[in-house]
Design goal:
It comes from Brevibacterium aurantiacum. With 133 residues, the chain is an alpha/beta fold. The chain contains three helices and eight strands; from the N terminus they run E-H-E-E-E-E-H-E-E-E-H. A hairpin with a 7-residue loop joins strand 2 and strand 3.
Length: 133
């Protein structure tokens, strides 16, 4: 039995959650489905992305565990059909390159960016993932 059974929610942090939500809404073409609190400055928002409705949350950095800083040494990779095209779209939206497009083996390609709020987002094309969806 696997300890890690699948991703539930990837949580990014930002000083201004509303500004981050607007940036991600523009990038993804969808609005958050959840916002807390409902009125006033947001402390947390959440999007559902892709066929599996994976959850992407954005939390106010003030609520992050002590010692947490912008960005992370851990990278969550999101499946994309075309890493180069996805990277170009993110860069056009104001992200910066963290790691360029990198072949990782037969048919595996990755890249990563830093969003305008200091979070690392990984992009991956994997034939194992695409074959299941």
């Amino acid at each position: 039995m696997s300890t890690l059974k699948g991703m539930t929610t990837m949580v990014l942090t930002a000083e201004d959650v509303d500004k981050a939500a607007e940036w991600y809404s523009d990038l993804l073409g969808i609005a958050p489905y959840f916002r807390q609190p409902e009125e006033g400055p947001a402390a947390y928002v959440e999007f559902r992305i892709g066929a599996d409705e994976d959850e992407l949350g954005i939390m106010n950095r003030a609520y992050a565990p002590e010692g947490t800083t912008a960005g992370s040494s851990s990278i969550t990779y999101w499946y994309v059909d075309d890493v180069e095209a996805a990277l170009a779209k993110l860069l056009a939206h104001g992200a910066t390159t963290h790691m360029p497009v990198t072949p990782r083996g037969p048919e595996f390609v990755t890249a990563s960016v830093i969003d305008p709020f200091g979070n690392v987002l990984g992009l991956m094309y994997s034939p194992h993932w695409s074959g299941q969806h």
